[in-house]
Amino acid sequence: MPELPEVESTRRALVPDLEGQQIVCVTVARDRMVRRHENPSDFKRRLEGRKIIRLRRHGKFMMTDVGVAPDGPEFIWVTHLGMSGRIQVASPDEIRAPHTNVTVGLGSGREFRFIDPRTFGFVAAWTPEELAATSLGDLGPDALTALPRVRQLVAVLAGRSAPIKALLLDQRIVAGVGNIYADESLHRSQISPHRRGGSLSPEEVGALRSGIRASLAAGLKWGGTSLDDLAYLLPDGRAGQFTSRLRAYGREGEGCRRCSGTVRRDVIRGRSSFWCPGCQI
Predict the structure, then answer these.
(1) Fold designation for 150-246
(2) 281 near 191, Cβ under 8 Å?
(3) Do 194 and 165 touch, CB atoms closer than 8 A?
């Protein structure tokens, strides 16, 4: 699933093509992509004819602020890439990739295309009030732009018996860290994914915070992580280059990049977790 670095890399690439553009037309090829609306036509109706003001992000969600129309309220166009989603901006005469489920025509003559084979992603157009009433209203602070200070994280983790790996995946605590970057953060901070969250000392929480920041920064530097299935690609079709630089995730049986240990894979709360018993205490 695309995580914060992948979504942020996508957002940055899209800004020149989307911001300031008029939304001319909207086509939804599969109603499942707009399942968050009671009426599937609401997404199209709420966006057509409006202007894109700003493209931002919170955690793994892209948030596009759409300007106020003379006859209606402001809307926030939310895009979630899900497990296999990616975005492409193309000319209308370019062949559409299979599973292009949402197309938004822009005033520039180009098209925003949402490609999602497994349809776990979605798009929605909500008022700020509607957005706050969804599960997105419970998202924690963004891991890139608003990562809590050590003291705050210590307070959040205090008394928690769940494994720290599971807590890192809880988007209500910190938004944007998923399976890949949780494993990378824990490896950088030399903390076992099995450790109870409440057992971490302030010093360890500080190391974990630094590990999160470093892992996300590295992912962004290299355009995110494209796995073997190439489900995630940048809008121009390039693969993210962070894959070969991963320290833990997906490296089961390989030598640790820090010590002489071997990376192993455990399942923690239903999620694969890659870590090194040799240096992650």
Answers:
(1) Helicase, Ruva Protein; domain 3 (1.10.8)
(2) yes
(3) yes
Tell me the DSSP string of 57-100: EETTEEEEEEPPPTTS--EEEEEE-TTT-EEEEE-TTSPPPTTE
Q: Given a cut of 90, is residue 88 above it in pLDDT?
A: yes
Domain ranges of the chain: 4-138, 150-246
Q: Is 197 helix (H, G, I), strand (E, B) or coil?
A: helix
245 near 165, Cβ under 8 Å? no
Mean pLDDT of 33-45: 96
What's the rounded Cα separation, in Å, for the pair 266 and 19? 43
Alpha carbon 139 to its chain centroid, in Å, reads 12
Write down the pLDDT at residue 69: 58
Question: Active-site positions?
Answer: 2-3, 60, 271
DSSP assignment, residue 149? P
Q: Distance between CA atoms of 38 and 47, rounded to whole angstroms?
A: 16
In the DSSP assignment, the letter for residue 176 is S
Q: What is the mean pLDDT of the segment spanning 6-17?
A: 97
**pLDDT exceeds cutoff 80 at 40:** yes
Alpha-carbon torsion 156, 211, 146, 125, what sign?
negative
